Amino acid sequence: MTDKHFKLVNPETDKSVDIPLHEGSVGPAVLDIASLYKEHGVFTYDPGFGATASCKSSITYIDGEQGILLYRGYPVEQLAEKSSFIEVSYLLLHGELPTKEQLQRFNQQIVYHTMINESLLRFFHGFHYDAHPMAMLSSVVSSLSAFYHGSTNIHEPEDRDLFATRIIAKIPTIAAAAYKHSIGQPFIYPRNDLGYCENLLRMFFAVPAEEYEVDPVAAEALDLLFILHADHEQNASTSTVRLAGSAGTNPYAAIAAGIATLWGPAHGGANEAVLKMLDEIGSVENIDKYIAKAKDRNDPFRLMGFGHRVYKNYDPRAKIIREMCHKVLKKLGKEDDPQLELAMRLEEIALKDEYFVEKKLYPNVDFYSGIIYKALGIPVSMFTVMFAIARTVGWVAHWQEMISDPATRIGRPRQLYTGATRRDYVDLDKR
Ligand code: CMC
Question: Which of 178, 257, 357, 409 satisfies CB 3.0 to 4.6 Å to 244 for a cystine?
């Protein structure tokens, strides 16, 4: 794989250590420190994994300095303009764009699996009406593992494919059931003649009492948002799915672990947090006060939807969503949304502020996505659920890549221990 090496010198023994350097197809090379402990008795230390590649992957590439995002080599801007979420799902899972027949077959398989077992629907009755939908989503997705005993042998490629189809097909149905439960409306069954996003919108907004027509503008906007959220290499939730999956756990349980991680406001929960923040700021006059709060080290307030571990430039997804925001709101007749105006002004002020410039803090994917979800009628508490639906395909692609790699071992990080050294137990009456 490589013939380049780095040399490290151990100051205690003066011995030098050869560290092999592996180059990928593009992007930074990695130092292979796998034998460092065995040969030299030291670990490496990188809290937050800012400089650690946890695996090899050929799914998604990000250049954070340039603001580039490629799915299987294709720029996300081209996919956003020309592709569909279902086609992007095929691409992420299989590595290549599908032919017409492959796409049709893939779509049919997804459509065929959209229904969920009726017993799963009864799970929702156990939740209080105001349960957070992410809590319901992760629990019910985890419960899918109790339904498919005969077809989740992770070492069988056919079982893995069936799992992939099932979870991508069923997650919108589960999300819609969670929404309907939270507003006390009857569940709406999926319809096989509709596209992925049309079906989702119908399951969300139709009621049995009357006909419902899906707004094509809304379906198109949702499809585009799903493309942009479909994958983002080794982010916290994807790494969680990989780590859980590396132990050989049931794949539905691994996806549930990913959903739990995505929920956090530093990750996918940011889209919900952005709208709450805009509500709190209230009006343009208050922006300076909140910018000052975000800059104050003693204040926990952060500008939600700003900053990213990898992007030190404008998040390419945010750029697309920002443009789309205007178009969609105009088409839906909601272009005078005061929150959009507030968000744009906030962005403008932050991008000129020395603190944000110096720290290279730019709007991320979540800054504008909530405004579109809101315009589509999706309630704020469902925003992260929308993200989870789209990201499921990325999680599955990474899980598949990992499980089918014979070199995969259980993920098991080490630590720098700073606790007490060995000491003897003291009897209770002597303490
Ligand atoms: N507002 C104010 N200051 C910030 C912000 C922000 N949103 N983000 C980072 N900083 C500061 C941070 O305080 C730190 O300052 P200093 O160097 O003085 O200690 C510096 O910028 C570097 O930040 P960091 O916390 O070390 O960066 P990180 O890579 O650990 O965290 C992040 C990345 C996304 C968690 C963080 O930028 C953040 O909390 N942003 C707001 C939440 C958000 O929008 N999350 C969505 C991320 S994109 C979608 C996704 O991943 O799901």
Answer: 257
The protein residue whose alpha carbon is closest to atom 13 in ligand 1 is 297
- Ligand 1 site residues, Cβ closer than 6 angstroms: 48, 235, 266-268, 270, 294, 302-309, 359, 361, 364-366
The candidate with the shortest Cα–Cα distance to 217, out of 324, 131, 293, is: 324
Q: Which atom of ligand 1 is nearest to the CA of 294?
A: 2
Residue 1's pLDDT is: 56
State which ligand 1 atom lies nearest to the alpha carbon of 309. Answer: 29
In DSSP notation, 214-255 reads --HHHHHHHHHHHHHHS--SS-HHHHHHHHHHHTT--HHHHH
In the predicted model, is pLDDT for residue 386 greater than 60?
yes
Which residues pair with residue 306 across a beta bridge?
A: 363
Q: With cut-offs at 50, 70 and 90, classify the pLDDT of residue 79.
A: very high
Other C-beta atoms lying within 10 Å of the C-beta of residue 125: 7
**414-428: average pLDDT:** 97
- Note whether 141 and 254 are within 8 A (CB): no
Estimate to the nearest angstrom the gap between the alpha carbon of 153 and the chain centroid: 25
Residues serving a catalytic function are 308, 366
pLDDT of residue 293: 96
Two tokens, residue 164: 């992939």
Q: Which of 235, 271, 354, 359, when mutated, tests ligand 1's pocket best, judged by the most ligand atoms within 8 Å of its CB?
A: 359
Q: How far is the CA of 383 from the centre of ligand 1 (A)?
A: 20
pTM of the model: 0.94
Residue 2 has a pLDDT of 57
In 190-335, alpha helices (H): 196-205, 216-229, 236-246, 251-262, 270-281, 287-295, 316-331
State pLDDT tens for residues 204-256. Answer: 999 999 999 999 999 999 999 999 999 999 999 999 999 999 999 999 999 99
Of 308, 360, 387, the one to substitute when testing ligand 1's pocket (max ligand atoms within 8 A of C-beta) is 308
What's at 28, amino acid-wise? Answer: P
For atom 18 of ligand 1, the residue with the nearest CA is: 297
Pocket probe for ligand 1: among 272, 302, 351, 358, the residue whose CB has the most ligand atoms within 8 Å is 302
Element of type H or E holding 356? helix 354-358
pLDDT surpasses 90 at 95: yes
Virtual CA dihedral for 28, 32, 36, 39, nearest 10 degrees?
A: -150
Mean pLDDT of the chain: 94
